[in-house]
Amino acid sequence: MSEDLRQKIIDIICEEWPTPDGYLLGADVHERLRSQGVEVTDAALNTVLSEMATSGRITFWLVGGGTPEQARTGGGAAIHDIEDDLCG
Known about the structure:
alpha+beta; Arc Repressor Mutant, subunit A; 3-stranded antiparallel beta sheet; 4 helices; 3 strands; 48% helix; globular
């Protein structure tokens, strides 16, 4: 996995966090990457989010009831918490 992509995802999470709703959708992260001209596959985004969760950097859940398009663009993931030092 590209360290550059991982850092871009962390930067987006840190810019958006905390959110008024208390969560950040993976689809929003995906859209921000696209708006920055970053071509990212759905699998790559989901892999980075999963690795961050496994290492305890973020807490996220998969959200049910989404459309297939949302699932493909990380929309099935909702970040609910981040480690204090992630954005330090």
